[in-house]
Amino acid sequence: TSLGLVSSAKEEGTARPAPPVTVGTPTVKEIKEYAIITGSRRAFESADIVARVAGTLETVEFSPSTPVKEGDVLFTIEKTKYKAARDAARAAVQSAEADLQLAETELTRVEKASRSRAVSEVDVDRARANRDMAIAAVATAEANREDAELTYSYTDVESPITGVVSRRMVDPGNLVGQGGPTLLTRVNALQPIYAYFHAPESIVLRFLSQRREVIEGTEAEGKKLAKASIALADGAGYIHEGYIDFIDNEVDRATGTIEMRVNLPNEDLAVFPGLFVRFKVEGPEIPDAILVPEIAVGTDLGGKYGLSVDENNIVVQNYVTLGEPDGEGMIDIMEGLESD
Predict the structure, then answer these.
(1) What is the pLDDT of residues 251-286, one digit of tens each?
(2) DSSP for 227-269, written as a single string
(3) Radius of gyration (C-alpha) of the chain in whole angstroms
(4) In what helix (H) or strand (E) does residue 137 lie, and over which residues does it extend?
(5) CB atoms within 10 A of CB 247
(6) Residue pair 291/331 in contact by the 8 Å Cβ criterion
(7) CA 132 to CA 138: how far, in whole Å?
(8) How far apart are the C-alpha atoms of 9 and 31, rounded to whole Å?
(9) CA within 13 Å, CB half, 119
(10) Which DSSP state fits 252?
């Protein structure tokens, strides 16, 4: 039982009686335990958009901070020389195919003539070799054409993923891709979004004892076994719901923690990569939890404490370990007070 304590004093030799104080009875009920951990967000997928061919950046086809889809053209790079190379490669294929057709016709003629001994076997072998070289020439020309087509396609810089695009890093008119890839912008997939945190081993064992089922189970099982809610720095509370879908397979020996990940649907795009957040990880039920008003918990050099009245009606100071507030002005006393 918590109470406030006011000391007595003596004035002119007379003991002044202690003033009356309010004594309250703690609330005992079943609650769910939680762990609060700090972490940060990362994109579900992230792609650096780079120039893969050298040339002048001609156009920018997007607005900053807008959604883009996989395959959307974000930039164009000057096409002239790459289009010419592609057209030349296509023509080379046609030329090689014509040479192959001629070589096959010649081989057919020579083989027919050899049956009447009008030509020698050497002529047949030579015609067959020419045919085989023409086949190889067609294969080489087709490979060169595919390479030229691919290089030409790089002049349209597309988004490889669906997400939200950043700003342009290079303005039109600048030379890009010279001497190596040039970063043009970045696309982050934000639905869903990942949030990573490092939890002490004790918390992992305490709150996620069914670790194997979380790792090997389905998404629905993951939600059931390891729910989590997330709060941002705006003070709105733990309003973003997600679930743990990843637990690392070893403890970091340097920190004694295990990396875990929360999968957040992020349907309203309220969360961006890099934000520091607080996680509330759902734990087991506590059948006889002791809840007291938050104002009944004091602090001194020894830590957090509560005052109780013993069987002799004497006030006792009890140092306590606190749980989480319940949102209604009450807080869980995990250790330090007995329910009776």
Answers:
(1) 888 888 888 888 888 877 777 787 777 877 766 667
(2) EEEEE-TTS--S-EEEEEEEE-SS-BTTTTEEEEEEEE--TT-
(3) 37
(4) helix 121-153
(5) 17
(6) yes
(7) 10
(8) 42
(9) 16
(10) B
